[in-house]
Amino acid sequence: MHPGTHVWPHTGPTNCRLRMHLGLVIPKQGCRIRCTDQTRCQEWEEGKVLIFDDSFEHEVWQEADSFRLIFIVDVWHPELTQYQRQTLSPI
Fold first, then answer.
1. What is the pLDDT of residue 12?
2. Distance CA 28, CA 53 (A)
3. pLDDT digits (tens, 9 = 90+) for 3-29
4. Which InterPro entries match (predicted)?
5. In what order do the strands lie in the sheet with 38-41?
6. Options 3.40.630.30, 3.20.70.20, 3.30.420.10, 2.60.120.330; CATH of 5-87
7. Helix H or strand E segment including 6
8. What is the model's pTM?
9. By CB atoms within 10 Å of each CB, which of 31, 54, 60, 71 scores lowest?
C-alpha cells in the first residue's frame, strides 16, 4: 500500500472466513486499521500475522512515508462445522 492511501470503510462479502495479514514490509509509524469501533495503530509487524473478521466494517490508513506490504490469506471461520464448510463454495 502506497503512502497516503486510505481504504474507505467497507465490509467483506461473508462471515464464513477470517482474513489474515502477514506483515512483509511494515513502516515503523503511520499504519492504522479500524474494525468496528476499535482503531489500532501499528498493528502490523514484519513476520507476524494480524487476524480479523472482515465481515465487520473496517478501514485502513497508510500515513507512513514508505509503502506497506502484506500477504493476505483467507481461512475458514473456526466456528463453522465441517458440514458447513463442505456445503459452501471455496473462499
1. 93
2. 25
3. 999 999 999 999 999 999 999 999 999
4. Asp/Arg/Pro-Hydrxlase, ASPH, IPNS-like_sf
5. 5-10, 58-62, 31-35, 38-41
6. 2.60.120.330
7. strand 5-10
8. 0.87
9. 71
d(CA 91, CA 33): 23
* CA 46 to mean position of chain CA atoms: 14
Q: Which residues lie closer than 8 Å to 11 by C-beta, 6 or more apart?
A: 54, 55, 56, 57, 58
How far is C-alpha 19 from the chain's CA centre?
5
50 contacts: CB under 8 Å, gap ≥ 6: 20, 21, 23, 33, 43, 44
Sign of the torsion angle spanned by Cα atoms 43, 47, 75, 8: positive
91 — pLDDT class (breaks 50, 70, 90): low
